[in-house]
């Protein structure tokens, strides 16, 4: 008792320090253990990609921690994440699950969202799984930055260095560089101002085009629908069209073979026709006389058919003469009939 009276304040300080230390230790232990207080229910969710999700990560609803991840495994082509969640939290068959970034270090957490309300959406029970159709993976920053790779490849290091040097020179207050930049900016604005009328006409034309398209939107919509119908019809008849193309190909092959087979005869016929044309051109006087007497000959021939269905011909004089040969007279007698006189 004498010791307590003499050092009571120090003893009370030690006791208070011990109590605070125990409380803080318990809080740290609870944080490190990452446990969910109260009764929990164990559920699972299927993801196409669960990269970065680890045991102990948070499960949150509306930003509030309601559970933690207890396991991950691969089932076929899907990643299945198992987690414990406070049984008081409503998780139904319409609930959506996603993976989000917790911080810039890459740590992730599972987020649960109510989803669209459904009358048949019952509450999930122990061991149930949220299907992959109702989940989404986390944004892959690596894939996103890799998408800029073609752009970065087009940049030449020399151009980037020159741009950086110009920016540094401007920031360092070099008058010549700043003056050049100002002059170029002034020239650009002056050029735009000089083209104000042209730019105005372009905008007016664009406005006119927009108004015209808007006034004919019904026709445009109809045209698009007709194109859709045409495309659908072509798709439905693709087999017939393919067969027709095959037939056309066969016809082309047959025609090519026919031309190859008849090329020489056609060439000879054309050569013969050319010779005939040259001959007729050289006998233009004879051809002219023949054509001039042809109507008379036809008239005489038609008169011979006027006595019945037979042909009455009186051979008064007959002679033959080939081109380049003497005439051969074959008169049947020296006495002609009355019709020939």
UniProtKB/TrEMBL annotation:
Residue stretches making up the Mce/MlaD domain: 40-115
Chain segments annotated as coiled-coil in the UniProt record: none
InterPro entries: Mce, Mce/MlaD, Mce_C, MlaD_Phospholipid_Transporter
Domain annotation Mammalian cell entry C-terminal: ranges: 122-316
GO (cellular component) term, any one: extracellular region
A GO biological process held by the record: biological process involved in interaction with host
PANTHER family: INTERMEMBRANE PHOSPHOLIPID TRANSPORT SYSTEM BINDING PROTEIN MLAD-RELATED (PTHR33371), MCE-FAMILY PROTEIN MCE1B (PTHR33371:SF17)
Name listed for the protein in its UniProt record: Phospholipid/cholesterol/gamma-HCH transport system substrate-binding protein
